[in-house]
Amino acid sequence: MNQPFDLTQINLSMAQENQYEVAVLPIGAIEAHNRHLPYGQDFFHTSEVARRCVRQAWEATQKVLLLPALPYGVDSNLMDFPLVMHVRQSTLDALVRDLALSLVHHGIKKMVLLNGHGGNDFKPLIRQLQFEQPLHLFLINWWQVGSDRYHEIFEKVDDHAGELETSVALHLFPELVQTKNAGNGQARPFRFEALNKGWAYTSRQFSKLNDHCAVGDPSKASAEKGKRYLQVICQRITEFLIELANSPLDEDFPYQNREPRGNR
Ligand SMILES: [Zn+2]
Predict the structure, then answer these.
(1) Which domain holds residue 100?
(2) The domain that contains 113 carries what CATH number?
(3) Among 1, 8, 16, 237, which is least packed by CB within 10 angstroms?
């Protein structure tokens, strides 16, 4: 049956009948994830999280629309690994901008970017677009949604293809996980304290960290942990989408309403 929240499945009568308020665009990457996870990891899990959350938010509001996910991401620093696909941030930005303008054209003024890949950075685009267009943009980086609950579920910190991503993969697409091939995810530290502490930044060249394109130990991963993490983040994202869909676009949006003039 056609899902009325899925842009690829609706038809013209459904488009004419429904009043969508919020559009959600998932964005992934196609890249090596240790030796045991699929290249589509970020694309798959981001698409699935978006679908679950939009479905539930749709059931509660009939106002939330899921756009098909963009598979590609910024991967310039992983290109030493075979068949990693890199698109420039400016290319991604151009695509997101065109989609945003299409939404504005059709009267949708709330857009959520659900980002599944650490190399993608949409903050500058959001600042610029909100200056130019009558559109409110929101960015959710999926790995940050449950970071305050991370240590209740996982033992080791994940960064790329470690315990979190492997657990989520074991829950969502276990048939694509080749656990026996996994490397330990140990990454070479920088020689500079400033970089190791994180107050100075440089782009990491993944091929210099280790030989299996991973930062984070996947050995403690399990499908159960992946399921628990997804429950936490899907509940939070769904609630946010429902709130967004139901919130009027008054002059104070997205801030709390000012008190009426008489009470100031
Ligand atoms: Zn990933």
Answers:
(1) 12-253
(2) 3.40.50.10310
(3) 1
- Asked whether residue 260 is assigned to any structural domain, the reply reads no
Distance (angstroms) between ligand 1 centre and the Cα of 165 equals: 7
- The reply to whether 259 falls in a domain is no
214-242 pLDDT, tens digit per residue, is 999 999 999 999 999 999 999 999 999 99
Sheet holding 110-115, edge to edge: 64-66, 22-27, 110-115, 136-141
Q: How many domains, in total, are found in the chain?
A: 1
Question: Is 263 within a domain?
Answer: no
Output DSSP code: residue 69.
P
Å from CA of 149 to ligand 1 middle: 19
In a domain, 183, yes or no: yes
CA of 249 from ligand 1 middle (Å) equals 34
Rounded to the nearest integer, the mean pLDDT of the chain is: 97
The secondary structure of residue 247, as a DSSP letter, is S
**Taking ligand 1, which is a single-atom ion, which protein residues have CB atoms under 5 Å away?**
41-42
pLDDT in tens, 25-62: 999 999 999 999 999 999 999 999 999 999 999 999 99
Residue 91: pLDDT over 70: yes
